[in-house]
Amino acid sequence: MEDFSQWFHNILEEAEIMDSRYPIKGMSVWLPKGFKIRKHILRELERLMDKDHDEVLFPLLISETELAKEGIHVKGFEEEVYWVTHGGNKEFNEKLAIRPTSETAIYPMFALWVRSHIDLPIKVYQTVNTMRYETKHTRPLIRVREITTFTESHTIHETYDEAIEQVKEGIAIYKQLFDSLAIPYLIHDRPSWDKFPGADYTFAFDTLMKDGKTLQIGTVHNLGDTFAKTFDITYEAADGNHKYPYQTCYGLSDRVIASLIAIHGDEKGLVLPPSIASTQVTIIPIIFKDGGEEVLSKANEIKDILEESGFRVNVDNRNIRPGKKYYAWELNGIPLRIDLGPRDLENNKMVIIRRDTFTKEECSLSEDIVSILNSYLSKINLNLKEKAWNFIKTRMIEIDDLDKIEKIVLDGNIGLIKWCGEDDCGKEIEEKTNLDILGKRHETNGVCINCKKEAKYLISIAKTY
Ligand code: A5A
Ligand code: MG
Ligand code: ZN
Would you state the pLDDT for residue 387? Predict the structure, then answer.
């Protein structure tokens, strides 16, 4: 892709996903087509979350006292907080923070809710907007100052082991979500200097944009008992002792939607995975002067059959040229198009066109249309997944010479290097290469690429958004 940034900007506008002309930096408007994509993704995420979490909704504002309680946490966010200082003309005695994330909104309430071990575990999530005064270059969906689709989970457990397990469950849920969206990801154990402020450790999901820069699309944190101690959350254990519980939190944002659009889209527009396409099949009746009614009624008949089996179908019977309809189908990324004209009817067939490959195939109208179209949708899903995973896999390159890292990564790759595990050495690698360490992938041996001491981990290094 020549210029990914420009392409991304254009597609949001042309496919009517977002209007980024809103007159405040870092904030955009969701347009109907974009909102539908958002809705289908959220629906899938909620389906996964609801299996083992309860949905809640906390207030937008956090008192300064609560926000300031956890020292490391507030330090991590202090430059990014939006403050509400006035009610009308009256200045507040205590200013109020607009949540940059909700630990300090939720945990004072956890302190009230948690009494006994029988109250645990608690697993809640909410989808809200949060605000972060980002100073890096903002881009719609990718780095915004108002995150409009922040799905954050917060859990609380009796033991540290349970928190460790919950982190694994959070990772498993996000894997299922990304798999259903055909978004490839690498999971990294974040370096200690870049973990979530207040967490014991952080796992991040990273994906690769077409310009070779990685995007962090989700994080899962083990908070240990740090916040429990700060917010005085205690429970009475079975033995009658009062103890601090252990917590985790994990979150996703608009970036999931950004990566879905960016990874599957092409020069012609969006390419939506069938699972979240609000229209999965569009039927285009090719109507000339004669025989129009018959074609249209057949198109509607096919639509009814498909809808009955759960497909999301549309008959594009607008009074415009077929070429314009094809163009809209391409731009909007509808997985399948069915062309149906009088000739086709005579021959008892229809033509099926795939958005991902543009392959055209004829299909007899006497066949089992439902199972044929189902198999098309699975093929599309599989193809999108394979293409996207191949892209990221071919761009992971092992490097053993520090001097070569920067060039190889700036050519659009993710570098895999060996590291000793020492913070100072890791930060030095970042400085020398001008890149970011994404985190550990797994343990290894050999020598550290920088200090030449014994290596402990294979880590990824990349140019990040
Ligand atoms: N409470 C925890 C879950 C939390 O806030 N974690 S986090 O700070 O890592 O944010 C969760 C995810 O939100 C990140 O992994 C990233 O994908 C996304 N995110 C963070 N800042 C963002 C921004 N300014 N614009 C868009 N997405 C952002
Ligand atoms: Mg850094
Ligand atoms: Zn080293």
Answer: 98
Report the chain's mean pLDDT, rounded to a whole number: 97
Distance in angstroms between the alpha carbons of the first and the last residue of the chain: 17
pLDDT in tens, 71-82: 999 999 999 999
- CATH number of the domain enclosing 451: 3.30.110.30
DSSP 268-283: TB----TTT-S-SEEE
Structural domain boundaries, residue 130: 4-264
State pTM to two decimals: 0.96
Q: Is 222 in the pocket of ligand 1 (CB under 6 A)?
A: no
E strands present in 33-160: 54-55, 61-63, 82-87, 90-98, 122-131, 146-157
Answer yes or no: is 274 within a domain: no
Peptide bond into 100 cis (omega under 30): no
Ligand 1 neighbour 250 (Cβ under 6 A)? yes
Is 75 part of a structural domain of the chain? yes
Position 391 in a domain: no
The preferred substitution site among 81, 98, 147 for testing ligand 1, maximizing ligand atoms within 8 Å of CB, is 147
Q: Is any ligand 1 atom within 6 A of the Cβ of residue 198?
A: no
Cα 256 to middle of ligand 1, angstroms: 11
Question: Does 463 contact ligand 1 (Cβ within 6 A)?
Answer: no
169 part of a folded domain: yes
Task: Looking at the structure, tell me whether residues 31 and 102 fall in a common domain.
Answer: yes
Regarding the beta carbon of 178 and ligand 1, being less than 6 Å apart is answered no
What pLDDT does residue 290 have? 66
